[in-house]
Amino acid sequence: MPADRRPRHSRAGARSGEAGFSLIEVVVALALLGLILGVLSDSLRTGLGSAARAAAIEPPLAVAEAKLAAVGVTEPLVAGRSAGVDARGIGWQLSIDPFHDDDFDGPSSDAPGVPQLYRVRVTVTWSQGGAPRSLSLDSLRLAAVTPP
Known about the structure:
The longest helix is centred in the N-terminal third of the chain and has 48 residues. The chain is of the alpha+beta class and 148 residues long. A four-stranded antiparallel β-sheet has the order 1-2-3-4, with helices on one face. Strand 1 and strand 2 form a beta hairpin. The relative contact order is 0.12.
């Protein structure tokens, strides 16, 4: 067959075999993309809000940990209460009380040579978003044993 006598495909036949997306497929794909992006943005907003709340708790927690760590080192381990406010406006209260465990089967802490056990509680208060917030840390500490 000569080169000029090849059968030619009609334009209509060529178009029917072309691959592509119809308008409805594009609309459905865009709708699904919008739903997915909406869910992702909501999750991102929730995560950022949680991160902001966690960051706001760090300074009060640092104050509470510092006050708790100071008891028995720079602060005497003596029963009593004290309170104050730091430079950032974070209020703190420290309470030290003798601790007695009624279920303890060992010697009494009143016996000579037995150390006294104290419950130490630090409570910090601050304002976050106009609302008052607080947290407390508790610990048990042994007093130094006085020789008999």
